[in-house]
Amino acid sequence: IPLSDLELIPICRNGEPWISGEDLLGLAWKVRADFGQDQIEYILESRNDIPEDWEISFLLFPGVVKRDRPGNLYFPFIYWNGEWSLEFCLLNSRHFSSGRLVRRRERPRK
Questions:
Q1: pLDDT digits (tens, 9 = 90+) for 65-76
Q2: Contact 32, 105 (CB under 8 A)
Q3: How far is CA 101 from CA 9, 28, 70, in A?
Q4: Is the pTM of the predicted complex or chain greater than 0.85?
């Protein structure tokens, strides 16, 4: 998927400062922002083509959920700190309004 075919979806609506992990998963499912590990790796491999305006956001990928030994759930996100970095975030936490889901841009219906 070319990066130009992707779009960012805000995770918070109506001025809300954060969203819960459960609501984040529901929103990701609803808007079809369910990218997996392959898509994350492709985006990182294409890091020189990532639009500059994406640098102000945390790009969240809750379609990939991993469990640690104690049973905590995490999902990957990438962010700009002078370069694109991959980290994991605890699902059961507050996710602030700077987060964006990544999905394939919707095509106009004919």
A1: 999 999 999 999
A2: no
A3: 5, 7, 27
A4: yes
**Residues 77, 83: Cα–Cα separation, whole Å:** 14
- Contact status, residue 91 vs residue 107, Cβ threshold 8 Å: no
Taking a C-beta distance cutoff of 8 angstroms, is the pair 95, 89 a contact?
yes
| DSSP state for residue 106 in the 8-state scheme | P
Coil, helix or strand for 63? coil
Q: Using the 8-state DSSP alphabet, how is residue 109 labeled?
A: P
CA dist 50 and 102 (Å) reads 12
Q: Is 95 exposed, middle or buried (0-12, 13-18, 19+ CB in 10 A)?
A: buried
